[in-house]
Specification:
Blueprint: E1 3-8, H1 12-23, E2 28-34, H2 37-47, E3 51-55, H3 63-73, E4 78-83, H4 88-97, E5 101-104, H5 109-120, H6 128-139, H7 144-149, H8 153-163, H9 168-175, H10 179-192, H11 198-213
Parallel strand pairs: 1-2, 1-3, 3-4, 4-5
Helix pairs in contact: 2-3, 3-4, 8-10, 8-11, 9-10
Length: 215
């Protein structure tokens, strides 16, 4: 059977290179591609891929969030995360999102092809020790106050506004900052809190506020 592959990377030249590489294989077919998370969420379900190769870091979002959202729509989809450099937090987040593998862009062409075939067969490329560490983190999470203390004053203000449901644009207007600056602050505070999306951060902030009020 032909393995149907979907590509997500915000660099067209990277997508083209991977597409050419995969389509030289008789059992692989690239059925769609996207340069943004929004495009991927629209195009991937229509393309019905068996495997999605997702860039971890995107301009508009995170490939990890795309992995989580696509797998909620297509539970049988195998996601292979692609990144330029090793990052423990992104690796942990990928495991949590249900990814089947996490590979560096420096991977050899032959190895990437074989990895696509392996995850399509239902294999996991993730180190069992890493999965065990993720389970340990879930079982024994860091205390809320210690995570909060790692944030700067500016990041705490932004976290509070996120908890109020404000968008990056609204936060930028409220704090007299550029929207891009707010996005950078948000990315940093999510990393410090060891979280992958704004919803987690909002829940965390709400819980922290409740603990502080003694509720």
């Amino acid at each position: 059977m032909t393995i149907r592959v979907f590509l997500l990377d915000d660099h067209a030249i990277v997508r083209e290179g991977i597409r050419i590489l995969l389509e030289n294989e008789p059992d692989l077919e690239v059925v769609g591609e996207a340069g943004t998370a929004a495009e991927a969420m629209t195009r991937a379900p229509l393309a019905r891929p068996d495997v999605a190769i997702l860039d971890v870091r995107l301009e508009d979002s995170s490939g990890v969030e795309v992995c989580r959202d696509l797998r909620s729509m297509m539970p049988g989809l195998a996601c292979l995360m692609l990144t330029s450099f090793a990052d423990d937090e992104a690796l942990f987040a990928s495991v949590m999102a249900g990814a089947s593998g996490y590979v560096l862009k420096q991977i050899r062409a032959h190895d990437l092809i074989e990895d696509v075939r392996r995850v399509a067969r239902g294999e996991s490329l993730l180190d069992p020790r890493l999965v065990a560490r993720v389970i340990e983190r879930i079982t024994n999470p860091p205390k809320s106050d210690s995570l909060f203390e790692a944030l700067s004053a500016q990041e705490r203000r932004i976290l509070d506004l996120i908890a109020q449901g404000q968008t990056n644009r609204q936060i930028a207007e409220h704090m007299f900052l550029a929207e891009h600056t707010v996005k950078n602050y948000t990315t940093t505070l999510l990393r410090k809190l060891k979280m992958t999306n704004r919803t987690e951060a909002a829940i965390f902030a709400t819980k922290l506020r409740a603990e502080g009020s003694g509720a």
